[in-house]
């Protein structure tokens, strides 16, 4: 009967088939490079500040999906034009009033998303899934 041997490069020893070292090598405890494999540690759970940052990012994503930044700037600029017109004694036409109402509806939804973000950030404990639809306005 012939014995089979394997040289483990990190230990620089010859191990026989009947040894625990050889069994570990066969079962994958050692990689092909001879280094002992150690499982990756479990990742640390995110901290509260990290989750709050994720909540703010989710709110931002939802706001931008609903109303892109360029449109928000246009709404703000148009609102400024209306305010200036009113401050100079002018009145808004029916079309301009409809535009104000439409812009306000958009802004109300953005405010609802911001308020939802504040509520989620104050939860104790913080939810596991910050993207869950029931946490955010439709």
General description of the model:
The chain is 54% helix and 6% strand. It is mostly helical and 138 residues long. A two-stranded antiparallel sheet has the order 1-2.
Helix content: 40-55%
Q: Note the beta-strand portion.
A: 5-15%
**Which stretches are low in confidence, meaning pLDDT under 50 for 5 or more residues running?**
none
Oligomer: single chain
**Total helical elements:** 4
Arrangement of strands in the largest sheet: 1-2
| Radius of gyration (Å) | 32 Å
Order of helices and strands: EEHHHH
Major sheet description: 2 strands, antiparallel
Measured between the Cα atoms of the first and last residue, the distance is 75 Å
Please state the structural category.
Answer: mainly alpha
Number of strands: 2
Basic shape: rod-shaped
Average of per-residue pLDDT values:
86
Show the helix and strand layout:
Layout lengths: L4 E4 L4 E4 L3 H7 L21 H19 L2 H19 L6 H29 L16
Antiparallel strand pairs: 1-2
Brief summary of the model shown:
The protein has four helices and two strands. The model has no long low-confidence stretch (mean pLDDT 86). The protein has a two-stranded antiparallel sheet.
Task: Name the features.
single chain, 138 residues, mainly alpha, two-stranded antiparallel ribbon, 4 helices, 2 strands, 54% helix, 6% strand, rod-shaped
